[in-house]
Amino acid sequence: MKTNPVVEKMLCAGRWVEADSTFPVYNPQDGRLLAEVPSASKSDMEEAVEGAHRAFTSRRPWPTHERMTVLKKAAAYVRENQESFAEVIALEGSKTITEARGEVKRAVQTIEISAEEARRLKGETINFDQNEGGENRVGYYQRFPIGVIGAITPFNDPLNLVAHKIGPAIAAGNAIVLKPASVTPLSALKLAEAFTAAGLPEGYLSVITGSGKDIGDTLITHPAVQMISFTGGPEAGDAITKKAGTKKLSMELGSNSPVIVLNDADREEAVKACVSGAFSAAGQNCIGVQRIYVEEQQYGAFLDEFAAASAALHVGDKMEERTDVGPMIQEKEALRVENWVEEAVSEGAEIVLGGRRDGTFYYPTILTGVPHDAKVAKEEIFGPVVLVHPVRNLDEAIELSNSVNYGLQAGIFTNNIQKAFEAIQYMDVGGLMINDSSDYRIDEMPFGGTKGSGIGREGVRFSMEAMTEQKVVCFRLNHR
């Protein structure tokens, strides 16, 4: 990426365009200006949506092999330029360069999976003769693209979460209009370049940058948009559901992920996984470890080893290979985390490690003795803070795990298969990782949660199913 600030263009209905005004994108680590990005207007968003609708209706049906070719070429483009993609992710966001490289690899895989799943988007035959009087009927159902997808993505995975919107939408034959997070729009614009270079038909993708207050409602309420795919916070998700009307919705709204460590667990593995799960991406991760419930016999040793391993993490320049934890996305977010921790301490919590802020950096923090009704225990902190609690048994751990209004993913460490299945049965989450932390995901699995964690499931095939409609076909045959 260029070191001097540049003026970017956005992709609107197949054209790279400027806007009447721009907004700055800064490196959160040092406040350096990286780029000026178009600040789109309501009319820009309307143009993008209407262009997407025209592209979709004029090309329908779009052959599967052509969709697959575009996706494969886009994935190849990202792979060939993976270091420049990683630099963009790291410079505009919170990830270290090492974490950013991992995200690029995942984004390539997400797009490649989308190409593979395009050929597998099938229906089934229906036995109409199961009903009396249906003996002379045969038929099937088939999946068809729904039209224009409106997508809104967050800052914490600025490339792969964008790929999780664009890849399935294109694979299913839809057009898509995407609004990336305003603090990290450069990765999304760079991915749009990959799809343009891959020969994506004009109008099938728009990446519109700007304030959600200015253009969000236009995207959400436009009658040509048939589905909203949103990843973000619960308050924004609730507002979208009230505005969208009769549209399909897919929402991933975060979590407050628990991990349970039982007496029979491999403590070394549990410590290693929980350190990574709690503090990667500076804790700004929807499935990051936030609460750890440790059975009493393991508690003291686990806490000592967990604190020691966490203290060994290197906090610093995110562009250095040795750095484990970089800055948070904005200083106001680091201040928010600082305030939440201070509030918990005032309510009786003890800081075992960390509790220190330096500008946008918030150091890995471990709390014990946190009241279960404290804000940091009930809400998603989205920062490098983890709570460790002793529990008497698995039943108590499950009860506490389920006590918040989130249910995205969880983890449990145990070598007892009976207890593992008890957790599977009774933990109210969308995904449970056995002998791993909550922070494990592959891009093909169904991903989503219960309660306040969202609506529906992502993961390429599952997103494609949501982005299509089933159409039943029935032939009534003449009697011989």
From TrEMBL:
Residues 16-473 form the Aldehyde dehydrogenase domain. Keywords: Oxidoreductase. Pfam families: Aldedh. Transmembrane segments: none annotated. Gene3D superfamilies: Aldehyde Dehydrogenase, Chain A, domain 1, Aldehyde Dehydrogenase, Chain A, domain 2. It comes from the Bacteria. Belongs to the aldehyde dehydrogenase family. This is Aldehyde dehydrogenase family protein. It comes from Halobacillus kuroshimensis. The lineage of its organism: Bacteria, Bacillati, Bacillota, Bacilli, Bacillales.
